[in-house]
Amino acid sequence: MALTQARRDLFRLFLKRSVGPQRLVAGEFVLQAAARGVPVLHVGRRELDELCEGRVHQGVCLEATPLPFKSLEEAEEPGWGDGESLNRQLLWLVLEQIQDPMNLGALLRSAYFLGVDRVVTSQRNSCPLTPTVSKASSGAMEVFDVYSTDDLRSFLKAKAAEGWEVVGTVSQSEAVENVPVISCSEFRWNKPIILVIGNEGDGLSLETQLLCQQMLVIPSGRALHPGIESLNVSVAT
What we know:
Helices cover 27% and strands 21% of the residues. The protein has eight helices and eleven strands.
């Protein structure tokens, strides 16, 4: 995906020396690299392991520039009445301090597949768009822009003033001051939505909770043992 999308500057493609069916797969990478003018180096597994710092690589490693977050200032504002959104509600996903790259990658894959219009992360204490995130997203990060803001509170206030509904998320054991908590199965979606997901350990900050109009909870299927009171954040999302 990184080779075909032209969103990064590409320097070198490393392929594990192979025979048989794997060699045919490697041939496809060689053709893609040639089309982009990227040099290809055939190396041993140990060298690939070192290049990838021990991460799973499946015999392929691409040297390229990082993908940065996009700023909200450079984003095109989708209109509620444009052709794309005439027959459906807009849905933005906002991530507050998601720190695990595997979680972030899984979140991006689900958001892309299920049609989320935009993903926005908080800059502070959030995972960057690393190689691990791209691999965990199965390439979705290579085709799906991810935006970032250094002032999440002001962003949410501005969107609420524009008529968006800001909806937070909590585990079923939590209560939120002055914000109604309802089951996600009872939620009725009748305006553009911003769904806000919190940090793996602490959930949403109190300041962010107080900016939400409603909080959604996923009800469990059994009485839960203490310490297992919520889903993994990417699964819940």
